[in-house]
Design a protein that fits this description.
heterodimer, A: 261 residues, alpha/beta, Rossmann fold, 2 domains, 4-stranded parallel β-sheet, 41% helix, 11% strand, B: 432 residues, mainly alpha, Fumarate Reductase Cytochrome B subunit, Fumarate Reductase Iron-sulfur Protein, Chain B, domain 2, 18 helices, 0% strand, elongated
Chain lengths: 261, 432
C-alpha cells in the first residue's frame, strides 16, 4: 500500500484543514529504525482514513533534550520557533510518534503560548480501535508472548499506562508484565538527554539491566512506544545475543504488521 | 505545688522553648529559598495530603515496611493523647487525672497498650532490617556512620519509651491492686498485665520508686526526643504533611518554565519587546547553591527521612553510577544547615551546593525518569533539584559534557540533535 503523507503547506494550498497534525519527531525523521515506526503510524492513519498532515521540513526539534540537559535557552528558542509555525497553521490537535515530543508539546509549550490537544500515537490507535475506524484482529501476533516496556515520558511523566496495553490486547497475544512495570517501570537509560552522551561510569548499562529483565520472561516480542526506548531495548537484546528469537517493536508496528498494512 | 512539680514545669517549658528556637531557625532557612507561590488548588492539595501523608497511600507500595510504618505512625499519633494526661499529672501532682472518665478511660488506656505493642514490635523489626538483615538501601554510599546511627538512635529511643510505658503501667497495676495511696484504681492493662507478674514480689516502696523513676525517664525521654527530632532525619514526622500539601500537582514530565529565560528569548524574537531596566539585578540561571533553590525544594530536604526508596528505584544508582537521589536531598539539607550557620555567625562562606556537595558526575547520570519522585512516600522531588543544578552547569558555567555540547549545536543549527539537515527531514516519506 502506498503511503499518503500530506504536508501542512500542501493542505493549506488545497484549502483543506487536517483534523490532526502528526508530529514525527527527530528520531522518527532521521533514525533508520525509528523511520519504520513513523511509516507504521502513517499506514495506520491512512487505513483509518484520518485526515492528517505533517510539517515536513518545517518541523524542528521540540527542544526536549536541550531542556532535560539544562539548556533552557535553547529549549525556549526551539519552542518559540515551533509555536510560531504551529500557531501559523492554526493547529488544534497533535499526535506524536515519541513520548518526549508528546510530553514537551503537551506540558511545556502552553507556558510559552502553544496550546494544543496533544496525544501519543498509542492513544490515537486506541481511539481509532474503540471508535471502530480501525479493525484489528489477531493476525500474525496471535498467541505470541509480548511484554510492554513503559516509556518514562508516557508512563510516570504523563500517567498513560493503559492505552498501549489495551492496543496490544487486541492482537490476541499473551501480554506478560515485567516486575518493574507501569508506575514502577525501569527507564531504558536514554531519557534526560542520556541518548546523546556516553553513560557516566558505573558497573552496568541501564538498557542491559532492563533487557535482562524483559528477556527473563522469554517473550517473543518486547513492545514499546518510544524511539529512544526502541534503540536501547534493541541494543540490550543484542547484548544478550537474542535478536534472532526476540523482536523489539513499537506498538504502532505491531498493529501495522498484524494487519499487513 | 511540690518541688517535683516545679522541676517538671521548668523542664517542660525549657524543652519547648529550645524546640521553638530550633524550629524558628529551620523556618528561616527554608525561607532563604526562592519564592514560589503555591497557594493554588487548596482543595486538591488537601486531598493529596489526606491520601499520601495522612493516609500513607504511597508507603504500602512496599507492604512490609509500609504496614510496619503505619503501626508506628498510628501508635505515635494516638498515644500522644496520653501525653496530655502525663503533662497535667506532672504539673498538678495528680495521678491519672482522666480516670474519672471510667469505662471510656479503661478502653482508651487498654487500646494504647495494643498500639504500644505494635510500635515496639515494628521498631524491633526495623532495627533487625537495618542491622542484621542489612537491607541494601540502608547501607549504600551516602549512608555513612551518622545517618545510620541517627536511624538506630531513633528506633532505640522509641523502644525505650515503649518499654517505659509498659513498665509504668505494670508497676501502677500492682500498686493499684494493693490499694496504695495516690494510685487510684483506673485503666485496663491487657498487655502489661502479663508483665506486672515480674513486680509482684517487690515491696510497695520499691515499686513506687521504680514507677516514679520510670515516669520521669519517660517524660524526660519524650522532651529529649522532641528536641532531637529537628536535628534528625526524623523531622519528617512534622514536615511530611506540609511537604505533601505543597507538592507538585502538575504532570511529572512538566519541568518548570524559566521566566527569566522567556524574557530574554522574547527580546531576541521581538525587537519591540521592552528590555529590563538597566539597573535591574543580573539574573542567575539555575541553582548553584541552596539559596537559588525554591523554598519547597528546601522544605523537601528537611522532610526527607532517608528511607532510600528513591535511590533503590533509580536506574542510574541500580547500575552503579554515582547518582543517588537520596544523597541529593541529604546534601541539600546539610548544605542549607551550614549556610544558615555561617549566616548566623556572619562568617564568610566560600562553598556551594554544586561542586562542594554534589558533583557534575552525579548530575549527568540522571535519566530524568521520575522513578525517584514516584517512589517517595511524601512526594519529594529530587529531580527538580538535579535539573536546576544542571541549568547552572550549562547556562552559567558552560560546563556540559562534550557530547551534549555537540547535541546543543546540532539542535541550534539543524533543528535536530544529530547532524542531519533540516531539508532532509521528510526523506523518510519517499523511502520504501
Amino acid at each position: 500500500m502506498e503511503m499518503k503523507v500530506p504536508t501542512m503547506a500542501e493542505c493549506i494550498a488545497n484549502g483543506e484543514v487536517p483534523e490532526i497534525l502528526f508530529w514525527v519527531g527527530c528520531s522518527g525523521s532521521f533514525d533508520d529504525r525509528a523511520k519504520k515506526i513513523t511509516k507504521a503510524i502513517v499506514k495506520i492513519l491512512n487505513k483509518a482514513e484520518v485526515k492528517f498532515a505533517v510539517l515536513g521540513t518545517e518541523e524542528s526539534c521540540t527542544g526536549d533534550p536541550a531542556k532535560r540537559a539544562g539548556n533552557e535557552f535553547l529549549f525556549q528558542m526551539q519552542a518559540f520557533t515551533n509555536i510560531q509555525v504551529l500557531n501559523g497553521y492554526e493547529v488544534k490537535k497533535i499526535v506524536t510518534g515519541c513520548p518526549h515530543c508528546f510530553n514537551t508539546l503537551k506540558n511545556e509549550y502552553p507556558d510559552l503560548g502553544g496550546n494544543y490537544e496533544v496525544i501519543h500515537h498509542t492513544q490515537l490507535i486506541q481511539q481509532l480501535i474503540d471508535s471502530g475506524k480501525l479493525k484489528v484482529e489477531g493476525g500474525s501476533f496471535k498467541g505470541k508472548k509480548i511484554t510492554f516496556h513503559d516509556p518514562c515520558y508516557l508512563g510516570r511523566a504523563n500517567n498513560e499506562y493503559e492505552a498501549p496495553r489495551s492496543v496490544i490486547e487486541k492482537l490476541d497475544s499473551e501480554l506478560t508484565e515485567m516486575k518493574r512495570s507501569r508506575a514502577n517501570g525501569l527507564c531504558c537509560g536514554a531519557g534526560g538527554a542520556q541518548m546523546f552522551k556516553e553513560a557516566e561510569h558505573g558497573d552496568k548499562e541501564v538498557n542491559v539491566e532492563r533487557a535482562e529483565e524483559a528477556l527473563a520472561l522469554n517473550p517473543n516480542v518486547i513492545a514499546t512506544g518510544c524511539p529512544f526506548c526502541m534503540t536501547m531495548m534493541t541494543d540490550g537484546v543484542k547484548y544478550f545475543n537474542k535478536e534472532a528469537e526476540v523482536k523489539v517493536y513499537d506498538v504502532a508496528e505491531l498493529i501495522a504488521n498484524a494487519q499487513d498494512l | 505545688m511540690g518541688i517535683s512539680n516545679i522541676i517538671f514545669l521548668l523542664l517542660f517549658v525549657g524543652a519547648f522553648t529550645l524546640f521553638a528556637l530550633k524550629i524558628k531557625t529551620i523556618v528561616r532557612n527554608i525561607r532563604l529559598g526562592r519564592d514560589q507561590n503555591l497557594n493554588d488548588n487548596f482543595a486538591e492539595r488537601l486531598k493529596v495530603m489526606s491520601m499520601v501523608a495522612i493516609g500513607q497511600s504511597k508507603m504500602v507500595v512496599r507492604p512490609v515496611s509500609g504496614i510496619m510504618h503505619i503501626l508506628i505512625y498510628i501508635g505515635f499519633v494516638i498515644m500522644n493523647i496520653e501525653l496530655l494526661e502525663i503533662v497535667i499529672d506532672g504539673i498538678a501532682g495528680t495521678h491519672r487525672v482522666f480516670a474519672f472518665l471510667g469505662g471510656f478511660y479503661d478502653f482508651v488506656i487498654g487500646s494504647f497498650e495494643f498500639l504500644g505493642l505494635g510500635v515496639l514490635l515494628a521498631c524491633i523489626v526495623f532495627l533487625i532490617r537495618r542491622n542484621i538483615l542489612k537491607l541494601k538501601r540502608f547501607w549504600s554510599a551516602e549512608m555513612t556512620s551518622w545517618p545510620r546511627s541517627d536511624a538506630n538512635l531513633i528506633l532505640t529511643i522509641e523502644i525505650l519509651l515503649m518499654t517505659a510505658f509498659f513498665t509504668m503501667n505494670a508497676t501502677d497495676q500492682v500498686l493499684q491492686s494493693r490499694g496504695v495511696e495516690h494510685y487510684i484504681q483506673a485503666g485496663a492493662y491487657p498487655i502489661s498485665h502479663y508483665y506486672s507478674a515480674l513486680f509482684t514480689g517487690l515491696s510497695s516502696e520499691t515499686l513506687i520508686m521504680i514507677e516514679r523513676s520510670i515516669w520521669w525517664f519517660h517524660i524526660c525521654g519524650i522532651l529529649f526526643f522532641l528536641n532531637y527530632v529537628p536535628y534528625s532525619k526524623h523531622f519528617h514526622i512534622l514536615l511530611a504533611f506540609p511537604n505533601v500539601f505543597y507538592s507538585n500537582l502538575n504532570a511529572k514530565g512538566k519541568f518548570s518554565n524559566m521566566e527569566s529565560v522567556t524574557n530574554e528569548v522574547k527580546l531576541m524574537f521581538d525587537p519591540s519587546a521592552t528590555p529590563p531596566p538597566a539597573d535591574a539585578a543580573p539574573v542567575k540561571f539555575g541553582a548553584k547553591d541552596v539559596n537559588d533553590l525554591s523554598w519547597v525544594q528546601l522544605m523537601n530536604a528537611y522532610s526527607c527521612t532517608e528511607c532510600g526508596r528513591c535511590t533503590s528505584n533509580c536506574p542510574a544508582n541500580i547500575t552503579g553510577k554515582k547518582l543517588s537521589p537520596r544523597k541529593i536531598m541529604m546534601d541539600t539539607r546539610d548544605r542549607l544547615e551550614e549556610y544558615g550557620k555561617n549566616l548566623d555567625k556572619n562568617t564568610p562562606d566560600t562553598k556551594s551546593l554544586l561542586h562542594d556537595y554534589i558533583t557534575p558526575e552525579e548530575l549527568w547520570a540522571c535519566t530524568s525518569c521520575n522513578a525517584c519522585v514516584e517512589a517517595c512516600p511524601i512526594n519529594i522531588d529530587p529531580l527538580s533539584i538535579i535539573i536546576d543544578l544542571r541549568r547552572n552547569l550549562v547556562m552559567e558555567e558552560s560546563n556540559a559534557p562534550a557530547a551534549l555540547a555537540g547535541m546543543f549545536t546540532n539542535v541550534e543549527n539543524n533543528g535536530a540533535p544529530w547532524q542531519f539537515g533540516q531539508a532532509d527531514r521528510m526523506n523518510w516519506a519517499n523511502e520504501a
